[in-house]
Structure formats: structure tokens, C-alpha cells
Amino acid sequence: MNKEKNKTYYTYTLNMTILNILAIILFIVIGSIVYLIEINDNYTITLSMNNFFILMFIWLIIHELLHGIGFLIFKEVKLKNITLGMFLEKGVFYCMCKQNIGKKVILTSLLFPITIIGFITLIIGMIINNYELVFLSILNIVSSIGDIVMIIYFLKCPKDIIYLDLDDCTSFTVISNRVLDNIKVPGIILSKKGIYDPTLMYSKDKRRIIISKLSYLLLIIIFILIIISILKIIYY
Predict the structure, then answer these.
(1) ∠ at Cα 224 (222, 226), nearest 5°?
(2) Which pLDDT band holds residue 1 (cuts at 50, 70, 90)?
(3) Are the beta carbons of 113 and 129 closer than 8 angstroms?
(4) How far apart are CA 94 and CA 109, in angstroms?
(5) Using CA atoms, how far apart are residues 117 and 109, in angstroms rounded to an integer?
């Protein structure tokens, strides 16, 4: 795009160590608040450990699908540019939009999962005293720590920034004609910057779904657990 010429790109990397520490702190804070609000023994547990593990896995997938929906509600975003991935070696499930998008689009996508299957379902779970729904909602909020720090970062950014995902699921790039060096958020590290050249900076991996080898192993385990659960329902 001509309007992107002579702009500076800023590539940021997510510091997983700091994010994990922040996630633990967030878990303690939210868990304590929920405990203080709901000090009673009325919570119900309706699922076996196997079924709960399966549901937790599905919950994480729904999280990424909601990111995708958050992108796609904007007409300028094309489905062919959405990539879903699972990379357990880096401890992440992810959804990437491999086309240039604006601040409003990326913020909407980041907010979708934490709002819908985080805060809303947490409130519902507390109202109906359902332990699984409360725990899954807290898990989703805590696992959204990367999204949360990115939301904080983008709220500090000027309105006219351009967001770009390349091929690294633990980094993102921002294009701007403004100076962004002074924007600091814990867990996000500025790893590279320079003059933006759209002929050089673009995603080279256009696969719609990316699953690492270790992640395939998890999928096999999940499949086995599902089969066991079905057999238990049939024979017991």
C-alpha cells in the first residue's frame, strides 16, 4: 500500500517467562476474588477428570476460534488470511491474521475470547454455582495473559497504526509513522525495528492450520480419552 511507504516497522516478541509469572499472579488475584465473593459449598462438579480435560482442550480451541471471528467481523479481513495453530513446544495455541489490519480490528479480536468465554461465562458460572464453568473461565482469562498485555499495548498506540502477523506465533509487527519506542508493557519486548518494506515483510507460510509434532501427540491423547469416555457411556 502506498500509504505504508516510509513508515517504520516495530517487531515485538512476547517474553513467555514474564507472561507466565504475570499469569500466576492473575490466577491468584482472580481466584481470590471469586473465593471471597462465593464463600459457600454449593458448587457442583458434574464431569469426570477425563471429560473435564477434554472440555478444557475444547475451551482453548474455542478461544482461538473467537479470535478468528473477531477478525472476520470486519469486511476487509479475508478468511484465507486467517491461520489457526497449535505449538505446544512454545506453550501456545494461536490465531493469526496474515494481512495488514488496523488498531480497531486487532483490539476487537484480542477482546473477543476473554470477554465471551472469560468474564461473561465466569459470571454465569458463579450465578449457577458450576465449578467447571468457573474454573474454565478463570483458566481462559489467565491463559489470555498474552492477549491482555497486547490490549494494553495497543490502547497506548496511536489510532493509525497498522498491525501485521508474520510467521512467528510469539511475535507481532506494528507499522507506524509515529515513534513507538517509548511504549513499554511488561511481557512485550521490542526485538527489531526499521523502515517498512511491504515487498520484504509479509507472511511466507499461508497454511490455514498449523500443528506441531508435539501437538499432534496431544491430539492423539485427546482422541483416546474421547473414545474411553464414549465406551464408558455405552457400557456403564
Answers:
(1) 70
(2) very low
(3) no
(4) 12
(5) 13
pLDDT of residue 52: 81
Nearby residues of 175 by Cβ (< 8 Å), 6 or more positions away:
4, 7, 8, 9, 10, 100, 161, 162, 163, 164, 196
Q: Check: CB of residue 117 under 8 Å from CB of residue 66.
A: yes
Element (H, E) at 229: helix 213-235
DSSP string, 109-161: HHHHHHIIIIIIHHHHHHHTTBHHHHHHHHHHHHHTHHHHHHHHHHHHS-TT-
Report pLDDT for 73.
96
Strand intervals (E) in the chain:
8-14, 82-87, 92-97, 101-102, 162-164, 171-176, 188-195, 209-211
Q: How far lies 216's CA from each of 63, 151, 211, 212, 224, in Å?
A: 19, 30, 7, 6, 12
Q: What is the pLDDT of residues 95-146, one digit of tens each?
A: 999 999 999 999 999 999 999 999 999 999 988 888 889 999 999 999 999 9
Q: How far is CA 61 from the centre of its chain?
A: 10
Rg (CA), the chain: 20
pLDDT tens for 32-55 read 888 888 655 566 666 667 778 888
Mean pLDDT, residues 203-221 taken together = 87
